[in-house]
Specification:
This protein is of the alpha+beta class. It contains three helices and five strands.
Length: 143
């Protein structure tokens, strides 16, 4: 009897996780269908894209063109920040880092990657879940 209850609970929990993952994938799809990339941006498929909730009704995203060659020093430094450091997605090669056209959803405790310049190689996106609209999509400045 205990084994059946445990198995039922396990199946129920895995169903919840799959549902949440499916909902996030649908939300990413809505964002990517409604976004108008800024003038000077690359095609959407050139970017690795990370998303997370910044509030109950707002999604913040960071799009970046991954480096073909990764700097191991930069990657090692990002990893020292621990599992909540989103810089790993930017700084390291796959699988911890990301490749072009890859999408990930970050948990609430993970910080999005952060870059101060780089032009349209980096784009910040804000999306309003309730209205289903992109609030902003901006390229970074130049150093």
């Amino acid at each position: 009897m205990r084994q059946r209850l445990f198995l039922a609970a396990l199946l129920w929990l895995s169903g919840c996780a799959q549902t949440e993952e499916h909902q996030r994938a649908e939300l990413i799809g809505k964002i990517e269908q409604s976004i108008h990339l800024p003038v000077g941006a690359y095609p959407l498929s050139a970017y690795a894209r990370v998303y997370k909730f910044s509030s109950q009704d707002r999604v913040t995203a960071f799009y970046f063109v991954p480096d073909v060659k990764h700097d191991q020093w930069f990657c090692d430094g990002a990893k020292k920040g621990g599992r909540t450091n989103g810089q790993v997605a930017l700084a390291c090669p796959p699988p911890k880092g990301m490749k072009a056209d890859e999408r990930r959803w970050f948990g609430d405790d993970v910080y999005l990657p952060d870059v101060c310049d780089g032009g349209c190689g980096y784009i910040d996106v804000e999306y309003n879940v309730k209205s289903g609209s992109v609030i902003s999509a901006r390229c970074h400045g130049r150093a």
